[in-house]
Write a structure and sequence with these properties.
With 202 residues, the chain is mainly alpha-helical. The chain has 2 domains: 51 residues, Arc Repressor Mutant, subunit A, CATH 1.10.10; 147 residues, Tetracycline Repressor, domain 2 (Orthogonal Bundle), CATH 1.10.357. The chain contains 9 helices and 2 strands, in the order H-H-H-H-H-H-H-E-H-H-E. A two-stranded antiparallel ribbon has the order 1-2. The termini are far apart.
Amino acid sequence: MGKVEDNKKKKKNAIVDSAFSLFIQNGINDTSIADIMNKAKLAKGTFYLYFKDKYDVRDYLIRKKAAQIFDKAREALVESQIEEFEDQIIFMADNILNQLDENKTLLKFISKNLSWGIFTHALENMPTESGETAVLFIRQLFADSGRNFRNSEMLMFMIVELVNATAHNVILYKQPVELPELKRELYPMIRQLIHNFEIREE
């Protein structure tokens, strides 16, 4: 990377880091572009070289954070050497839930601003640290399982929605149960979903 490109990357990272800090502290509505650039110690006009508006930064942050969370889960799965498909999916769900439980501020930010469109854009287009997108990795897990599923994309959508919908209040407010109890009920449901979507030869 040349000096010019390195300088651009540093400026973009400064904007993103400042925005995330202010979004967490004050909320997006009460954070202005001027606030972001003052904190980043950059001229206001520099902002528009990288982003259209503060909501563009928000969407970038969600994509970036989602990719980082997934990449940690992916790395842990690779190291675990788990081979059974259901166990792989549950391992990743468990790792992601634990990450969010350890970083409730991040969960609040993501859950407040996350839309399915932004999330899938992150999974499909935002490379992880490995350079691989989440969708490619998940598709490879399906291929390596040697099993046939009807509409695997729908299956993954339902698993993600199930985990997301049930985990938010449990992690943040411990309602209606605490996380370990949720996991005991959630993981058999994921196994059953996978079972229901599998195409078996008669």
